[in-house]
Protein backbone atom coordinates (compact mmCIF):
# COMPACT_ATOMS: atom_id res chain seq x y z
CA UNK A 1 0.00 0.00 0.00
CA UNK A 2 1.35 3.40 -0.97
CA UNK A 3 2.41 5.49 2.02
CA UNK A 4 1.02 8.85 0.95
CA UNK A 5 1.89 10.46 4.28
CA UNK A 6 5.60 9.89 3.68
CA UNK A 7 5.38 10.83 0.01
CA UNK A 8 3.53 14.00 0.97
CA UNK A 9 6.30 14.87 3.44
CA UNK A 10 8.95 14.44 0.75
CA UNK A 11 6.97 16.59 -1.68
CA UNK A 12 6.40 19.26 0.97
CA UNK A 13 10.12 19.49 1.69
CA UNK A 14 10.83 19.87 -2.03
CA UNK A 15 8.35 22.73 -2.31
CA UNK A 16 10.00 24.31 0.71
CA UNK A 17 13.41 24.05 -0.98
CA UNK A 18 12.05 25.73 -4.08
CA UNK A 19 10.36 28.49 -2.08
CA UNK A 20 13.66 29.21 -0.36
CA UNK A 21 15.29 29.44 -3.80
CA UNK A 22 12.62 31.95 -4.75
CA UNK A 23 13.30 33.95 -1.59
CA UNK A 24 17.01 34.02 -2.41
CA UNK A 25 16.22 35.31 -5.90
CA UNK A 26 13.79 37.89 -4.52
CA UNK A 27 16.49 39.18 -2.17
CA UNK A 28 18.33 40.35 -5.26
CA UNK A 29 15.51 41.62 -7.45
CA UNK A 30 12.85 42.80 -5.04
CA UNK A 31 9.33 41.88 -6.09
CA UNK A 32 10.21 40.71 -9.62
CA UNK A 33 10.53 37.08 -8.55
CA UNK A 34 7.21 37.04 -6.68
CA UNK A 35 5.48 38.77 -9.62
CA UNK A 36 6.52 36.12 -12.16
CA UNK A 37 3.78 34.39 -14.12
CA UNK A 38 3.38 30.71 -13.26
CA UNK A 39 1.88 27.76 -15.19
CA UNK A 40 -1.32 28.60 -13.28
CA UNK A 41 -2.94 31.13 -15.62
CA UNK A 42 -3.52 34.46 -13.95
CA UNK A 43 -1.52 33.53 -10.87
CA UNK A 44 1.79 35.13 -9.99
CA UNK A 45 4.32 33.19 -7.95
CA UNK A 46 3.07 35.03 -4.87
CA UNK A 47 -0.54 34.08 -5.68
CA UNK A 48 0.43 30.43 -6.10
CA UNK A 49 2.37 30.43 -2.85
CA UNK A 50 -0.53 32.04 -0.96
CA UNK A 51 -2.81 29.30 -2.30
CA UNK A 52 -0.37 26.56 -1.27
CA UNK A 53 0.06 28.10 2.17
CA UNK A 54 -3.70 28.18 2.71
CA UNK A 55 -4.09 24.59 1.53
CA UNK A 56 -1.41 23.37 3.92
CA UNK A 57 -3.15 25.05 6.85
CA UNK A 58 -6.54 23.78 5.70
CA UNK A 59 -5.43 20.18 5.34
CA UNK A 60 -3.62 20.36 8.68
CA UNK A 61 -6.88 21.52 10.25
CA UNK A 62 -8.77 18.70 8.53
CA UNK A 63 -6.32 16.20 10.01
CA UNK A 64 -7.04 17.68 13.45
CA UNK A 65 -10.77 17.31 12.91
CA UNK A 66 -11.31 21.03 12.24
CA UNK A 67 -11.59 21.03 8.45
CA UNK A 68 -15.16 22.31 8.50
CA UNK A 69 -14.10 25.71 9.84
CA UNK A 70 -13.72 28.12 6.87
CA UNK A 71 -11.11 30.26 8.64
CA UNK A 72 -8.56 27.46 8.35
CA UNK A 73 -8.78 27.57 4.53
CA UNK A 74 -8.60 31.34 4.15
CA UNK A 75 -6.00 32.65 1.69
CA UNK A 76 -4.06 35.21 3.70
CA UNK A 77 -1.83 38.08 2.61
CA UNK A 78 1.71 36.66 2.82
CA UNK A 79 3.41 39.57 1.05
CA UNK A 80 5.54 40.58 4.05
CA UNK A 81 7.51 37.33 4.11
CA UNK A 82 6.24 34.69 1.65
CA UNK A 83 8.94 32.12 2.39
CA UNK A 84 8.43 32.31 6.14
CA UNK A 85 4.66 32.04 5.80
CA UNK A 86 5.00 28.99 3.59
CA UNK A 87 7.57 27.39 5.87
CA UNK A 88 5.25 27.79 8.84
CA UNK A 89 2.43 26.13 6.90
CA UNK A 90 4.62 23.12 6.08
CA UNK A 91 5.66 22.82 9.72
CA UNK A 92 2.01 22.97 10.77
CA UNK A 93 1.12 20.14 8.40
CA UNK A 94 3.70 17.45 9.18
CA UNK A 95 2.58 16.28 12.64
CA UNK A 96 -1.22 16.18 12.02
CA UNK A 97 -0.68 14.22 8.80
CA UNK A 98 1.69 11.80 10.54
CA UNK A 99 -0.84 11.24 13.32
CA UNK A 100 -4.07 10.98 11.33
CA UNK A 101 -3.29 10.86 7.64
CA UNK A 102 -2.68 7.19 7.12
CA UNK A 103 -6.00 5.79 8.23
CA UNK A 104 -9.72 5.92 7.59
CA UNK A 105 -10.64 8.71 10.02
CA UNK A 106 -12.52 11.32 8.02
CA UNK A 107 -11.13 14.66 6.90
CA UNK A 108 -13.69 17.36 6.12
CA UNK A 109 -12.72 19.08 2.84
CA UNK A 110 -15.12 21.99 2.22
CA UNK A 111 -14.26 22.36 -1.45
CA UNK A 112 -15.38 18.78 -2.03
CA UNK A 113 -18.49 19.40 0.02
CA UNK A 114 -17.96 16.24 2.01
CA UNK A 115 -15.64 14.28 4.27
CA UNK A 116 -13.27 11.66 2.92
CA UNK A 117 -11.02 9.06 4.58
CA UNK A 118 -7.71 10.49 5.76
CA UNK A 119 -5.60 8.39 3.45
CA UNK A 120 -7.59 9.63 0.43
CA UNK A 121 -7.40 13.24 1.61
CA UNK A 122 -3.62 13.00 1.98
CA UNK A 123 -3.35 11.57 -1.53
CA UNK A 124 -5.22 14.65 -2.83
CA UNK A 125 -2.87 16.97 -0.98
CA UNK A 126 0.13 15.00 -2.20
CA UNK A 127 -0.99 15.34 -5.82
CA UNK A 128 -1.53 19.07 -5.32
CA UNK A 129 1.95 19.45 -3.83
CA UNK A 130 3.90 17.56 -6.46
CA UNK A 131 2.26 19.41 -9.34
CA UNK A 132 2.76 22.74 -7.62
CA UNK A 133 6.39 21.76 -7.02
CA UNK A 134 6.67 21.51 -10.79
CA UNK A 135 4.92 24.89 -11.11
CA UNK A 136 7.42 26.46 -8.74
CA UNK A 137 10.43 24.91 -10.43
CA UNK A 138 9.29 25.85 -13.92
CA UNK A 139 8.57 29.43 -12.84
CA UNK A 140 12.07 29.69 -11.36
CA UNK A 141 13.72 27.93 -14.34
CA UNK A 142 14.89 25.15 -12.02
CA UNK A 143 14.54 21.37 -12.06
CA UNK A 144 12.12 19.80 -9.62
CA UNK A 145 14.03 17.28 -7.51
CA UNK A 146 11.60 14.45 -6.84
CA UNK A 147 12.38 10.75 -7.37
CA UNK A 148 10.61 8.68 -9.98
CA UNK A 149 8.47 6.82 -7.45
CA UNK A 150 6.92 10.14 -6.43
CA UNK A 151 5.74 10.77 -9.98
CA UNK A 152 4.53 7.19 -10.33
CA UNK A 153 2.42 7.65 -7.19
CA UNK A 154 1.15 11.03 -8.40
CA UNK A 155 0.09 9.47 -11.68
CA UNK A 156 -1.73 6.76 -9.75
CA UNK A 157 -3.83 9.46 -8.06
CA UNK A 158 -4.23 11.66 -11.16
CA UNK A 159 -5.68 8.77 -13.15
CA UNK A 160 -8.52 8.50 -10.62
CA UNK A 161 -9.63 12.12 -10.94
CA UNK A 162 -13.18 12.18 -12.39
CA UNK A 163 -13.79 13.87 -15.75
CA UNK A 164 -17.39 15.07 -15.23
CA UNK A 165 -18.30 18.74 -15.67
CA UNK A 166 -18.66 19.31 -11.94
CA UNK A 167 -15.06 18.19 -11.41
CA UNK A 168 -13.42 19.68 -14.51
CA UNK A 169 -13.69 23.17 -15.91
CA UNK A 170 -12.80 26.87 -15.42
CA UNK A 171 -14.60 27.10 -12.06
CA UNK A 172 -14.32 23.46 -11.04
CA UNK A 173 -12.05 21.47 -8.77
CA UNK A 174 -9.64 20.37 -11.52
CA UNK A 175 -8.63 21.65 -14.93
CA UNK A 176 -9.73 19.72 -18.03
CA UNK A 177 -7.15 17.18 -19.15
CA UNK A 178 -4.93 17.95 -22.11
CA UNK A 179 -3.88 15.48 -24.84
CA UNK A 180 -0.77 13.42 -24.00
CA UNK A 181 2.50 15.18 -24.65
CA UNK A 182 5.56 13.35 -25.98
CA UNK A 183 7.61 11.92 -24.51
CA UNK A 184 5.00 10.28 -22.31
CA UNK A 185 6.43 9.82 -18.82
CA UNK A 186 4.78 9.61 -15.39
CA UNK A 187 5.60 13.32 -14.99
CA UNK A 188 4.21 14.43 -18.35
CA UNK A 189 1.12 12.22 -18.06
CA UNK A 190 0.36 13.54 -14.57
CA UNK A 191 0.69 17.11 -15.80
CA UNK A 192 -1.53 16.66 -18.86
CA UNK A 193 -4.15 14.76 -16.89
CA UNK A 194 -4.42 17.84 -14.66
CA UNK A 195 -4.47 20.34 -17.50
CA UNK A 196 -0.79 21.31 -17.50
CA UNK A 197 1.40 21.74 -20.58
CA UNK A 198 4.66 19.90 -19.72
CA UNK A 199 6.52 22.22 -22.11
CA UNK A 200 5.32 25.42 -20.42
CA UNK A 201 7.91 28.13 -19.93
CA UNK A 202 7.70 31.71 -18.73
CA UNK A 203 5.87 33.87 -21.22
CA UNK A 204 3.49 31.14 -22.40
CA UNK A 205 -0.12 31.56 -21.34
CA UNK A 206 -3.24 29.43 -21.23
CA UNK A 207 -2.75 26.75 -18.60
CA UNK A 208 -5.49 26.61 -15.98
CA UNK A 209 -5.06 26.29 -12.24
CA UNK A 210 -8.31 26.51 -10.27
CA UNK A 211 -8.09 27.60 -6.62
CA UNK A 212 -8.78 24.08 -5.43
CA UNK A 213 -8.05 22.16 -2.28
CA UNK A 214 -7.21 18.68 -3.42
CA UNK A 215 -6.41 19.25 -7.03
CA UNK A 216 -3.60 20.98 -8.73
Highlighted features:
216 residues; mainly alpha; Four Helix Bundle (Hemerythrin (Met), subunit A); two-stranded antiparallel ribbon; 4% strand; globular; disordered C terminus
Question: What does this protein structure show overall?
Answer:
By secondary structure, the chain is mostly helical. It has a single domain (4-161), classed as dinb family like domain (Four Helix Bundle (Hemerythrin (Met), subunit A), Up-down Bundle). Helices cover 49% and strands 4% of the residues. The protein has six helices and two strands; from the N terminus they run H-H-H-E-E-H-H-H. The protein has helices at 4-29, 45-63, 82-100, 118-139, 148-158, 186-193, and strands at residues 106-109, 114-117. Strand 1 (106-109) and strand 2 form a beta hairpin. Helix 2 (45-63) packs parallel to helix 3 (82-100). The two termini are 23 Å apart.
In brief, what are we looking at here?
The protein is mostly helical and 216 residues long. The chain contains six helices and two strands; from the N terminus they run αααββααα.
Query: CATH-wise, what's the superfamily?
Result: dinb family like domain
Instruction: Report Rg.
Output: 16 Å
Distance between the termini: 23 Å
CATH architecture classification: Up-down Bundle
Q: Quaternary arrangement of the chains shown?
A: single chain
Q: What coarse outline follows from CA principal-axis ratios?
A: globular
Number of domain units: 1
> Which consecutive residue ranges, at least 5 long each, have pLDDT under 50?
204-216
What do we call the CATH topology? Four Helix Bundle (Hemerythrin (Met), subunit A)
Mean pLDDT across all amino acids: 89
Question: What is the string of SSEs from the N terminus onward?
Answer: HHHEEHHH
Q: Taking strands numbered 1, 2, ... along the chain, how are they ordered across the largest sheet?
A: 1-2
Q: Into which percentage range does the β-strand content fall?
A: under 5%
Number of helices: 6
Structural class by sheet pairing and helices: mainly alpha
Q: What share of residues is helical?
A: 40-55%
Q: Describe the sheet with the most strands.
A: 2 strands, antiparallel
Strand tally is: 2
